């Protein structure tokens, strides 16, 4: 059976991380990654698609969107896709993100209104919790089902009478959706 997989959107991820760093300079990496998870999961359940389409790994301290983690750490892998020389933030002390030297505003036009709403929810939720609270809040059934492996979008979809239909639809179409 084909798993639900989306094509990751590095453009949306850069805009989202940049926005979070501008909103809360010095935000820690854990808060950013969990904000992305909360946003993706909420958008998936409300609108039938995630914001970013990241690959989530169930790690000890909760879900980690791998591509966004690479970007946040400054890994140059995604720069070519973005047509950029650097990210608009810097990682300091190994876990805090601050605006980069150019201090430019994030390009929020790459995010739909529903994406921005989900992202705002994700940041408010994540930033309003301690490290331990975020970790506990993200160790739900979707994280547990992954058993420290790759998480499945199927498991992120909340139980409802239409869940089987939604999963079947996304299994067939997710790889073609433009996020």
Number of domains: 1
Strand line-up across the major sheet: 1-5-4
Strand content: 5-15%
Structural class: mainly alpha
Radius of gyration: 16 Å
Number of helix segments? Answer: 9
Sequence stretches where pLDDT stays below 50 over 5 or more residues: none
Helix and strand succession?
A: HEHEEHHEEHHHHH
Total beta-strand segments: 5
Averaging pLDDT over every residue, what do you get?
96
- The coarse silhouette is globular
- Quick one: biggest sheet? 3 strands, antiparallel
| N-to-C CA distance | 23 Å
Please estimate the helix content.
Answer: 40-55%
3D architecture notes:
The protein has 9 helices and 5 strands; from the N terminus they run αβαββααββααααα. The protein is mainly alpha-helical and 179 residues long. The protein has a 3-stranded antiparallel sheet with strand order 1-5-4. It has helices at 10-23, 29-47, 66-72, 79-82, 113-127, 131-137, 141-146, 153-156, 163-173, and strands at 27-28, 56-59, 62-65, 89-92, 96-99. The protein has one domain. It starts with 9 loop residues before the first helix and ends in a 6-residue tail after the last helix. α1 (10-23) crosses α3 (66-72). The longest helix is centred in the first third of the chain and has 19 residues, at 29-47.
SSE layout:
Layout: H1 10-23, E1 27-28, H2 29-47, E2 56-59, E3 62-65, H3 66-72, H4 79-82, E4 89-92, E5 96-99, H5 113-127, H6 131-137, H7 141-146, H8 153-156, H9 163-173
Antiparallel strand pairs: 1-5, 2-3, 4-5
């Amino acid at each position: 059976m084909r798993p639900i997989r989306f094509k990751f959107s590095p453009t949306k991820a850069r805009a989202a991380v940049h926005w979070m760093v501008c909103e809360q300079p010095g935000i820690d990496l854990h808060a950013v990654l969990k904000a992305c998870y909360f946003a993706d999961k909420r958008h998936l359940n409300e609108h039938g698609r995630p914001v970013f389409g990241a690959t989530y790994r169930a790690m000890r301290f909760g879900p980690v969107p791998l591509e966004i983690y690479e970007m946040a750490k400054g890994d140059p892998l995604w720069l070519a896709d973005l047509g950029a020389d650097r990210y608009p933030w810097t990682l300091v002390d190994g876990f805090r993100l601050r605006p980069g030297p150019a201090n430019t505003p994030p390009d929020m036009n790459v995010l739909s209104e529903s994406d921005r709403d989900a992202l705002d929810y994700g940041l408010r939720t994540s930033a309003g919790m301690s490290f331990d609270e975020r970790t506990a809040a993200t160790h739900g059934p979707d994280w547990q089902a992954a058993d420290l492996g790759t998480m499945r979008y199927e498991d992120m979809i909340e139980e409802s009478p239409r869940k089987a239909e939604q999963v079947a639809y996304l299994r067939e179409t997710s790889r073609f959706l433009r996020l």
